[in-house]
Amino acid sequence: MTHRILIVEHEAEAGLGYFAGWLAEAGMTCHVVRPYLGEPLPSLDGGTAPAGPWDGLIVLGGAPSAWDDEGTPWLPGTRALLRRAVETSLPTLGICLGAQLMALACGGRVEPGTAGPEVGLGAISLLPAAAGDPLFAALPLTARAVQYHQDAVTVPPPGAVLLATAADYPTQAYRLGERAWGVQFHPEASVEIFLSWTAPNADRLAEDGLDAARLDAEVVAAGEELRATWRPLAEAFAAVVRGAAGPGTGGTEAGGIVAGSGTHVH
């Protein structure tokens, strides 16, 4: 028996990455919904294919700004999904754009970053509250992670517990309630995913004073470190999902990835 996690993917280039294998090995089945292909967002309680109820929710990153409802018309529905997940204590993880959407949905503020793009291998530091957190307690006090964002959570949602910070953008990780987390960085991003982000944007990065080749080399060299650092976070999230849902609530399929109604499968 496995547990079922709903994944909201905002673009083909920002998929589950390392998390796909790590969550599958932890007994999770990830159902990926791709609204950019026209797939409808399901409700958390079922009724829209793929049918729930769900044992967990992960909202991935992407290029849109969290407030760009006109250019990205599924964002209001995604924010509503996140708000409902927080209200019902569904185990939830928002990554980069996902963390920003959750902040907006729950009363926080997201704005263009004043320190410019944060791209490449970045250092984050855990705050004291992380010591007792189900996801962050086992992580090192300082760690490096893949970053790729320009917008930022400038005011966390009311009641948010800050878990990690960094020099340029202080809100790197937060928890809402007992089972919802937002991370500004990309613990899921494989080396290949990061290279796919920088390759088409080298000129734009250069305009911001960033050398794509140097950023690529640093992330490639840190590949083993990144896997060792962030696999425990994925496994800890799976443990929260199991603990919240109880044994075997999610069906009989083997752990892995199940596509939504669209045709694009990673």
UniProtKB/TrEMBL annotation:
Keyword list, A-Z: Glutamine amidotransferase
Keyword flag Transferase: no
Keyword NAD: no
GO cellular component: cytosol
Name this protein carries in UniProt: Glutamine amidotransferase
Domain Glutamine amidotransferase: 55-190
SUPFAM superfamilies in alphabetical order: Class I glutamine amidotransferase-like (SSF52317)
